[in-house]
């Protein structure tokens, strides 16, 4: 069961990143697809599955935030990623602010994945 849930998690990680990258490109180019209903709903479904699978995996391997430093780092990174992503796609007052938040969110995303691979809270920065 662990490997099936991990597979779902990894697929959701890839889908979430691809969707964010696409929506970010649409934001930068002013594409009207950014406001399409499916574009607004599908990321929430994917990200909910991603979070549910992450929680399930954490319980299965008994690695929890504040008990496992790398899991704590991932949760902190997730919060930063969500805030930056919201700034990039919705709340940024200007396109340069949105573009900067988009680049920062992508960087945080890559760091979170590196933490997952290395099981080190510094990720690729170690």
Automatic annotation (TrEMBL):
Q: Which domain of life is it from?
A: Bacteria
Entry keyword Transmembrane: yes
Keywords annotated in UniProt: Membrane, Transmembrane, Transmembrane helix
Q: Which residues cross the membrane?
A: 6-29, 41-64, 70-89, 101-118
Name this protein carries in UniProt:
SirB2 family protein
Give the species this sequence originates from: Thauera mechernichensis
Lineage at the top is: Bacteria, Pseudomonadati, Pseudomonadota, Betaproteobacteria, Rhodocyclales
